[in-house]
């Protein structure tokens, strides 16, 4: 068993590479649910959907989230009814939020996700980080914002001086997550945002403890290449939090949990700073701009086991 810890787009792409590189071994992807929220009365889990759509080869290649070639007729009608439309829900995408919201009345999020993933033909196990609600909250000069308010509605323009994960202290691990971590021979920290994507996963106290005590080898991939995040507000966010926005800055956040660290070859000169933390360092091409590069990065990751 290989276990990946993932946020949205970057984690989904590496998970795709891992899944397609594994012959008989199973992949379990533990996914951030700190971004989940209710809109139009629907339970929306963007990172779970991004991982499922990517593994099902349905994802919109332009954005990485949502479904390829989707249309937005329902959203246009919602606008006529005076409903908020800052969160772009496509017509095909809408179905998963309807189904999930309905199924959640009877089942845990882990069970609902398994049903949806199976329906899409996904071969890997997609595991929400917890069945309890954990909500990422962003602290800004304008006060505390709900995650999607900060990320999508306000377009990541606010200065971030803190992040908190409401509910994390009370959240527990599902039996499915515990079993996956116990069986893992390799745990992969995907190149997702360490603050708002991997951060919520590790904020569940049992998760941190279960990863720390797992027998598996543990490897992280840098989401920062040459001082730039591949996607999203990571660099500004790390600066706002007083962290160094670089591969070594990310490695420091994970140093107590991982054995090895993969950074981009453009950052190879920073390897000694990471080796000084006691980690094995590998430099390679980490930008997953096409399918063959996803597989390449996955193979370098799997070689760490
Ligand atoms: N991200 C955006 O920047 N704008 C959107 O309108 C948007 C809609 C959306 C709909 C479904 C879905 O699964 C994801 C969506 N995302 C959108 C992405 C998502 O909210 C964020 O990228 C993640 O929460 C951060 O990982």
For the largest beta sheet, what order do the strands appear in spatially? 5-2-1-9-10-13-14
| CATH fold-level assignment | Rossmann fold
Helix residue percentage? 25-40%
Mean pLDDT score, rounded? Answer: 97
Identify every distinct bound molecule in the structure, by name, code or SMILES. Answer: ligand FO1
Number of helices: 13
Q: What is the level-2 CATH architecture name? A: 3-Layer(aba) Sandwich
Q: What gyration radius follows from the Cα positions, in whole Å?
A: 18 Å
> Main β-sheet: number of strands, strand sense, barrel status?
7 strands, parallel
Percent strand equals 15-25%
Strand element count:
14
In CATH terms, the superfamily is CofD-like domains
* CATH class membership: Alpha Beta
Principal-axes shape call:
globular
Order of helices and strands: EHEEEHHHHEEEHEHEHHEEEHHEHEH
Structural class: alpha/beta
| Domains (count) | 1
First and last CA, distance? 11 Å
Produce a short descriptive summary.
The chain is of the alpha/beta class and 305 residues long. The protein is built from 13 helices and 14 strands.
Question: How would you describe this protein?
Answer:
The chain starts with a strand and ends with a helix. Helix content is 39%, strand content 19%. It is built from 13 helices and 14 strands. The strands form four sheets. It has a seven-stranded parallel beta sheet with strand order 5-2-1-9-10-13-14, sandwiched between helices. The protein has a single domain (2-139, 166-302), classed as Rossmann fold (3-Layer(aba) Sandwich), CATH 3.40.50.10680. The model has no long low-confidence stretch (mean pLDDT 97). The structure holds ligand FO1. Ligand FO1 is lined by residues 7-8, 35, 46-47, 49-50, 65-66, 87-89, 93, 148, 151-152, 197.
């Amino acid at each position: 068993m290989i276990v990946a810890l993932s946020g949205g787009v970057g984690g989904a792409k590496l998970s795709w590479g891992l899944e397609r590189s594994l012959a008989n071994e199973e992949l379990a992807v533990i996914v951030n649910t700190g971004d989940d929220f209710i809109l139009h009365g629907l339970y929306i889990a963007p990172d779970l959907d991004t991982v499922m759509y990517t593994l099902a080869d349905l994802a919109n290649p332009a954005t990485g989230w949502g479904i390829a070639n989707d249309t937005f007729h329902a959203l246009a009608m919602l606008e006529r009814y005076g409903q908020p439309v800052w969160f772009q829900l496509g017509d095909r995408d809408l179905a998963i939020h309807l189904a999930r919201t309905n199924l959640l009345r009877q089942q845990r999020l882990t069970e609902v996700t398994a049903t949806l993933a199976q329906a899409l033909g996904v071969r890997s196990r997609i595991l929400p980080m917890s069945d309890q609600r954990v909500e990422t909250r962003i602290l800004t000069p304008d006060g505390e914002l709900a995650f999607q308010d900060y990320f999508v509605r306000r377009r990541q323009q606010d200065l971030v001086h803190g992040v908190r994960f409401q509910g994390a202290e009370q959240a527990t691990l599902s039996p499915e997550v515990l079993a996956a971590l116990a069986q893992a021979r390799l745990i992969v920290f995907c190149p997702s945002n360490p603050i708002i994507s991997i951060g919520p996963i590790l904020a569940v106290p049992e998760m941190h403890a279960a990863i720390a005590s797992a027998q598996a080898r543990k490897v992280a991939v840098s989401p920062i290449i040459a001082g730039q995040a591949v996607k999203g507000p990571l660099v500004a966010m790390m600066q706002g939090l007083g962290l160094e926005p670089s591969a070594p800055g990310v490695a420091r956040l994970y140093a107590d949990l991982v054995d090895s660290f993969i950074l981009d070859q453009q950052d190879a000169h920073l390897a000694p700073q990471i080796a000084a933390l006691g980690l094995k360092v590998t430099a390679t091409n980490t930008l997953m701009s096409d399918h063959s590069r996803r597989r390449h990065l996955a193979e370098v990751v799997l070689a760490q086991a």
